[in-house]
Amino acid sequence: MAELMRVQLMCLQEIHFKCVIHADIKPSNIFLHVQNGSYQVYLIDFGYALIVNERRVSSQNEPPPGSAAAIRGGTILFSSINWQHDRPISYRDDLESLVYTLLYLRFGQLPWWNPRSGHIVLDEDVVEKLKQTWVDLPWAPTELVDLWHYARELRVDEKPDYDYILGTIFRDDKHA
Fold it and tell me: Which of 37, 86, 88, 168 is the most exposed, fewest CB within 10 Å of its CB?
């Protein structure tokens, strides 16, 4: 599972390197190909994606130029807390959505959604509260908790430091 998480992060890194914010990361938008024991991950469905003009990004907590202040597509289940509040969407939101996606892929459910039992929380305030408190649950994987905190602390105009993420939060020797 750790290697699969690393490969998904590297896929997101490549998209962000091209100044694209996916804005709808969820399990159904991740295509996984396994061949000879190695993983190849593809993000699909760029219907809500944004292209960021890096030369004109503001540091005033404004949306990056070219982005919409509120993209209301996708699903509340995997969306970032910023998305739920119609705040500017940025790279940090892709990371936060990826955390929820990885959490779901690892456990087959989220604290606000259990597809096997049919339990789903649709109240946005309740979902937000659960998204803010899942990190305190005893079963929460440390690397996903760390990545969630990292993503939540990024500024709207800040690109993730994937060298730090892959080298510190998801370093190989932590999962040996």
Answer: 37
